[in-house]
Amino acid sequence: GLTAQRRQDIGVMALEQRVLASYERGDYLGALSALRQRAPHATETRDLTLMRAWSLYQLGKIDEAERLFRALDAQTSTKESRSGLAAVDSKRTRPE
Question: Please, are residues 52 and 16 in contact by the beta-carbon 8 Å criterion?
C-alpha cells in the first residue's frame, strides 16, 4: 500500500545506510558504489559528498577528492571541508 514516491524515499534511505555502513567499516569502494546507486534518485547531501571525498582520498584518488573538498569549501567553508583540504595538501607534500 505504499506510493511510488514513498517506496523511492525508503530505497534512498536504505542506500544512505549502506553508504554509512560501508564507510564506517573502511569499505570505501562499497561506499562509492552505494553513492552511485543513490545518485539517480536523490540529490547528494553535503554529508554524503564529504563521505565521497574522504572515500576517494582513502583510495588514493587525491585529485578527485581535492576537487570535491574545494567545491564544498567554496560553497560553505567548514571545519570538515578545511580538514579535507589540509589532508590533501599534507598528502601532496609528504607522499607515502
Answer: no
